[in-house]
Amino acid sequence: MTLPADDDRALLARLRAAVADGRARIDMDEGHLTHIHSPVLRQADDTLILYVAVIAALATWWQFGTIAGLAASAAGVAAYLALGRTRRRRRLAERVRVDALSDIALWRKLWRWGGVSLIRQHASDDAACHAPKDSWQRFAGDLDPPSDSR
After folding, report:
1. Distance between CA atoms of 123 and 22, rounded to whole angstroms?
2. 115: which DSSP letter?
3. What would the mean pLDDT of 33-53 be, rounded to a whole number?
């Protein structure tokens, strides 16, 4: 049975609040979320660094010759492996936490796609909810409301 959209929005807001205050966390399968059809992947996250590396290698080759151009290409590959993947991972996590948790349509696409799990923090039963087989609505509904006793 599908819940009305307004109920899903309220549950998503509850989940967003739980993630923000540390009562729940989102674990991500980067391999699954970086597939070309993933709803949270942006190809520009990878291509920006690659474009810069290619332009730098071509400029180095043009100015200093083949050996220097090959060295610049190797440096570009190393930069991509060191910085590009880290940047992509950070941007992907940000897109899930900020964009998907704020947009019910994107969250639904992401949940159907899979690659994310919801984990209740500080739970004795180590409760986890895995997309797409489990119900994120049930998970969000079972979360304790935020405590105002601070």
Report:
1. 12
2. -
3. 85
